[in-house]
Design a protein that fits this description.
The chain is α/β, with parallel strands linked by helices and 247 residues long. The chain folds into 2 domains: 128 residues, Tetrapyrrole methylase, N-terminal domain (Cobalt-precorrin-4 Transmethylase, domain 1), CATH 3.40.1010; 105 residues, Tetrapyrrole methylase, C-terminal domain (Methyltransferase, Cobalt-precorrin-4 Transmethylase, Domain 2). The chain is 34% helix and 19% strand. It has a 5-stranded parallel beta sheet, sandwiched between helices. Helix 4 runs parallel beside helix 5. The two termini are 29 Å apart.
Length: 247
Protein backbone atom coordinates (compact mmCIF):
# COMPACT_ATOMS: atom_id res chain seq x y z
CA UNK A 1 0.00 0.00 0.00
CA UNK A 2 1.12 3.56 -0.62
CA UNK A 3 2.16 5.97 2.09
CA UNK A 4 -0.02 8.53 3.80
CA UNK A 5 -1.76 10.77 1.26
CA UNK A 6 -3.50 14.10 1.52
CA UNK A 7 -6.67 12.54 2.96
CA UNK A 8 -4.61 10.69 5.57
CA UNK A 9 -2.88 13.74 7.07
CA UNK A 10 -3.75 14.89 10.61
CA UNK A 11 -7.35 16.09 10.81
CA UNK A 12 -7.62 19.86 10.72
CA UNK A 13 -10.21 22.34 11.96
CA UNK A 14 -10.46 21.48 15.66
CA UNK A 15 -10.77 24.34 18.17
CA UNK A 16 -8.15 22.91 20.48
CA UNK A 17 -4.56 22.29 19.37
CA UNK A 18 -3.68 18.95 17.78
CA UNK A 19 -1.44 18.10 20.74
CA UNK A 20 -4.26 18.72 23.23
CA UNK A 21 -6.61 16.62 21.15
CA UNK A 22 -4.18 13.71 20.98
CA UNK A 23 -3.82 13.64 24.74
CA UNK A 24 -7.59 13.22 25.18
CA UNK A 25 -8.31 11.15 22.06
CA UNK A 26 -10.38 8.01 22.24
CA UNK A 27 -9.16 4.60 21.12
CA UNK A 28 -9.80 2.95 17.76
CA UNK A 29 -10.39 -0.80 18.15
CA UNK A 30 -10.05 -3.08 15.11
CA UNK A 31 -12.29 -5.99 16.11
CA UNK A 32 -12.45 -9.39 14.44
CA UNK A 33 -15.91 -10.99 14.40
CA UNK A 34 -17.17 -14.51 13.53
CA UNK A 35 -17.04 -15.65 9.89
CA UNK A 36 -20.20 -17.67 10.40
CA UNK A 37 -20.72 -19.36 13.75
CA UNK A 38 -21.66 -16.63 16.22
CA UNK A 39 -19.93 -18.51 19.05
CA UNK A 40 -16.55 -17.87 17.43
CA UNK A 41 -16.07 -14.49 19.09
CA UNK A 42 -13.71 -13.77 21.94
CA UNK A 43 -14.92 -12.57 25.31
CA UNK A 44 -12.58 -9.61 24.87
CA UNK A 45 -14.29 -8.65 21.59
CA UNK A 46 -17.71 -8.78 23.28
CA UNK A 47 -16.38 -6.65 26.12
CA UNK A 48 -14.95 -4.04 23.75
CA UNK A 49 -18.08 -3.87 21.60
CA UNK A 50 -20.15 -3.42 24.76
CA UNK A 51 -18.00 -0.57 26.06
CA UNK A 52 -17.21 1.65 23.05
CA UNK A 53 -19.12 4.81 22.20
CA UNK A 54 -19.61 3.92 18.53
CA UNK A 55 -19.40 0.86 16.28
CA UNK A 56 -18.40 1.41 12.65
CA UNK A 57 -19.72 -1.56 10.67
CA UNK A 58 -19.38 -2.64 7.06
CA UNK A 59 -23.08 -3.56 6.98
CA UNK A 60 -25.05 -2.35 9.99
CA UNK A 61 -27.93 -4.76 9.29
CA UNK A 62 -25.69 -7.83 9.26
CA UNK A 63 -23.72 -6.65 12.27
CA UNK A 64 -26.92 -6.06 14.22
CA UNK A 65 -27.58 -9.83 14.13
CA UNK A 66 -24.31 -10.42 15.99
CA UNK A 67 -24.82 -7.52 18.38
CA UNK A 68 -28.39 -8.57 19.20
CA UNK A 69 -27.16 -12.12 19.88
CA UNK A 70 -24.84 -10.75 22.57
CA UNK A 71 -27.33 -8.10 23.75
CA UNK A 72 -25.09 -5.22 22.70
CA UNK A 73 -26.82 -1.95 21.93
CA UNK A 74 -24.57 0.82 20.68
CA UNK A 75 -24.80 3.62 18.10
CA UNK A 76 -23.67 2.36 14.70
CA UNK A 77 -22.27 3.99 11.57
CA UNK A 78 -21.77 2.34 8.18
CA UNK A 79 -18.17 2.04 6.98
CA UNK A 80 -17.82 0.14 3.71
CA UNK A 81 -15.68 0.20 0.56
CA UNK A 82 -17.70 2.89 -1.23
CA UNK A 83 -17.88 5.39 1.62
CA UNK A 84 -14.73 4.72 3.67
CA UNK A 85 -12.78 7.70 2.28
CA UNK A 86 -15.59 10.03 3.34
CA UNK A 87 -16.32 8.23 6.61
CA UNK A 88 -12.72 8.02 7.84
CA UNK A 89 -12.38 11.76 8.65
CA UNK A 90 -15.74 11.63 10.45
CA UNK A 91 -14.48 8.80 12.64
CA UNK A 92 -11.20 10.62 13.27
CA UNK A 93 -13.15 13.69 14.41
CA UNK A 94 -15.10 11.56 16.88
CA UNK A 95 -11.92 9.89 18.15
CA UNK A 96 -10.20 13.26 18.60
CA UNK A 97 -13.26 14.39 20.57
CA UNK A 98 -12.59 11.56 23.02
CA UNK A 99 -15.01 8.90 21.78
CA UNK A 100 -13.93 5.27 21.50
CA UNK A 101 -14.73 3.52 18.21
CA UNK A 102 -14.82 -0.17 17.27
CA UNK A 103 -14.43 -1.05 13.60
CA UNK A 104 -15.94 -4.36 12.44
CA UNK A 105 -16.60 -5.94 9.05
CA UNK A 106 -19.41 -8.24 7.93
CA UNK A 107 -17.31 -11.21 9.05
CA UNK A 108 -13.72 -11.88 10.00
CA UNK A 109 -10.91 -9.40 10.48
CA UNK A 110 -11.24 -5.80 9.19
CA UNK A 111 -8.55 -4.87 6.69
CA UNK A 112 -8.29 -8.39 5.23
CA UNK A 113 -10.10 -7.75 1.92
CA UNK A 114 -12.42 -5.50 3.93
CA UNK A 115 -12.38 -1.76 4.70
CA UNK A 116 -10.03 -0.45 7.42
CA UNK A 117 -6.98 1.06 5.70
CA UNK A 118 -8.11 4.68 5.45
CA UNK A 119 -9.21 5.11 9.05
CA UNK A 120 -6.15 3.25 10.36
CA UNK A 121 -3.68 5.42 8.41
CA UNK A 122 -5.48 8.60 9.47
CA UNK A 123 -5.51 7.44 13.09
CA UNK A 124 -1.76 6.79 12.88
CA UNK A 125 -1.22 10.25 11.38
CA UNK A 126 -3.14 11.79 14.28
CA UNK A 127 -1.39 9.61 16.86
CA UNK A 128 -4.67 8.12 17.98
CA UNK A 129 -4.29 4.84 19.91
CA UNK A 130 -5.19 1.78 17.80
CA UNK A 131 -5.82 -1.58 19.46
CA UNK A 132 -6.23 -4.86 17.55
CA UNK A 133 -8.77 -7.35 18.92
CA UNK A 134 -7.76 -10.56 17.11
CA UNK A 135 -10.07 -13.35 16.08
CA UNK A 136 -11.45 -15.27 13.09
CA UNK A 137 -10.21 -14.94 9.52
CA UNK A 138 -11.60 -17.04 6.67
CA UNK A 139 -8.33 -17.54 4.82
CA UNK A 140 -6.44 -18.65 7.93
CA UNK A 141 -9.23 -21.07 8.85
CA UNK A 142 -9.05 -22.51 5.33
CA UNK A 143 -5.26 -22.68 5.33
CA UNK A 144 -4.94 -24.73 8.50
CA UNK A 145 -7.26 -27.48 7.20
CA UNK A 146 -6.05 -27.42 3.59
CA UNK A 147 -3.25 -29.94 3.84
CA UNK A 148 -1.14 -27.67 1.60
CA UNK A 149 2.29 -26.35 2.55
CA UNK A 150 1.91 -23.72 5.29
CA UNK A 151 5.59 -22.88 5.77
CA UNK A 152 4.94 -19.90 3.55
CA UNK A 153 1.90 -18.60 1.70
CA UNK A 154 0.84 -15.70 -0.51
CA UNK A 155 -2.49 -14.09 0.32
CA UNK A 156 -3.94 -12.45 -2.79
CA UNK A 157 -7.50 -11.66 -1.72
CA UNK A 158 -9.91 -11.18 -4.64
CA UNK A 159 -8.67 -11.27 -8.21
CA UNK A 160 -9.61 -8.26 -10.36
CA UNK A 161 -13.08 -8.82 -11.78
CA UNK A 162 -12.10 -7.78 -15.32
CA UNK A 163 -9.07 -5.70 -16.23
CA UNK A 164 -5.79 -7.09 -14.94
CA UNK A 165 -7.17 -10.53 -14.06
CA UNK A 166 -5.09 -12.50 -16.58
CA UNK A 167 -1.99 -10.43 -15.82
CA UNK A 168 -2.29 -11.16 -12.10
CA UNK A 169 -2.58 -14.90 -12.69
CA UNK A 170 0.39 -14.87 -15.05
CA UNK A 171 2.49 -12.99 -12.49
CA UNK A 172 1.80 -15.69 -9.88
CA UNK A 173 2.48 -18.64 -12.16
CA UNK A 174 5.96 -19.31 -10.73
CA UNK A 175 5.10 -18.43 -7.09
CA UNK A 176 6.50 -21.35 -5.00
CA UNK A 177 4.32 -20.73 -1.94
CA UNK A 178 0.72 -21.78 -1.40
CA UNK A 179 -1.51 -19.09 -2.93
CA UNK A 180 -4.77 -18.00 -1.30
CA UNK A 181 -7.70 -16.25 -2.98
CA UNK A 182 -11.19 -15.17 -1.96
CA UNK A 183 -13.94 -15.59 -4.52
CA UNK A 184 -17.66 -15.01 -4.88
CA UNK A 185 -20.14 -17.73 -5.90
CA UNK A 186 -20.67 -15.88 -9.19
CA UNK A 187 -17.05 -16.18 -10.34
CA UNK A 188 -15.64 -19.23 -8.55
CA UNK A 189 -16.04 -21.63 -11.50
CA UNK A 190 -14.59 -19.07 -13.90
CA UNK A 191 -11.62 -18.56 -11.59
CA UNK A 192 -10.95 -22.30 -11.32
CA UNK A 193 -11.05 -22.62 -15.13
CA UNK A 194 -8.59 -19.75 -15.49
CA UNK A 195 -6.26 -21.26 -12.87
CA UNK A 196 -6.35 -24.57 -14.73
CA UNK A 197 -5.62 -22.88 -18.06
CA UNK A 198 -2.81 -20.70 -16.69
CA UNK A 199 -1.13 -22.87 -14.08
CA UNK A 200 -2.07 -26.41 -15.06
CA UNK A 201 -3.63 -29.16 -12.98
CA UNK A 202 -2.18 -28.30 -9.59
CA UNK A 203 -3.25 -29.41 -6.14
CA UNK A 204 -6.06 -27.20 -4.92
CA UNK A 205 -8.44 -26.84 -1.99
CA UNK A 206 -11.72 -24.95 -2.14
CA UNK A 207 -13.52 -24.07 1.10
CA UNK A 208 -17.07 -22.79 1.24
CA UNK A 209 -19.15 -21.38 4.10
CA UNK A 210 -16.56 -22.17 6.77
CA UNK A 211 -17.98 -22.58 10.32
CA UNK A 212 -21.54 -22.44 8.94
CA UNK A 213 -24.20 -25.13 8.57
CA UNK A 214 -23.26 -25.98 4.98
CA UNK A 215 -19.48 -25.88 5.44
CA UNK A 216 -17.73 -27.69 2.59
CA UNK A 217 -14.06 -28.45 1.86
CA UNK A 218 -13.11 -29.98 -1.51
CA UNK A 219 -9.53 -31.16 -2.10
CA UNK A 220 -7.86 -32.53 -5.22
CA UNK A 221 -6.45 -31.41 -8.54
CA UNK A 222 -7.96 -28.36 -10.22
CA UNK A 223 -9.74 -30.49 -12.86
CA UNK A 224 -11.39 -32.81 -10.34
CA UNK A 225 -12.41 -29.99 -7.97
CA UNK A 226 -13.86 -28.02 -10.87
CA UNK A 227 -15.84 -31.07 -11.98
CA UNK A 228 -17.14 -31.62 -8.44
CA UNK A 229 -18.23 -28.01 -7.92
CA UNK A 230 -19.90 -27.88 -11.34
CA UNK A 231 -22.41 -30.55 -10.28
CA UNK A 232 -24.40 -28.19 -8.03
CA UNK A 233 -25.26 -24.51 -7.63
CA UNK A 234 -22.46 -22.35 -6.21
CA UNK A 235 -23.53 -20.57 -3.04
CA UNK A 236 -21.80 -18.72 -0.25
CA UNK A 237 -18.31 -17.25 -0.04
CA UNK A 238 -15.29 -19.25 -1.19
CA UNK A 239 -11.64 -19.52 -0.24
CA UNK A 240 -9.39 -21.02 -2.94
CA UNK A 241 -5.97 -22.37 -1.98
CA UNK A 242 -3.58 -23.45 -4.72
CA UNK A 243 -0.34 -25.37 -4.31
CA UNK A 244 2.73 -23.39 -5.25
CA UNK A 245 4.67 -23.82 -8.47
CA UNK A 246 6.67 -27.09 -8.48
CA UNK A 247 9.48 -25.50 -10.51
Amino acid sequence: MSGIGESDRPFEGQRRSQEELRKTAGTLYIVATPIGNLEDISSRAVKVLSSVDLIAAEDTRKSKILLDHYRISKPMLSYFSYNEKARAPQLIEKLLAGQSVALISDAGTPGISDPAYHVVTQAIANRIPIVPIPGPSAFLSALIVSGLDMRGFAYEGFLPQKKGRKTRLESLKTEPRTIVFYESPYRVLKTLKEIHETWGDRKIVVCRELTKKFEEIVRGRVSSVLKELSKKPTRGEYVILVGGSPS
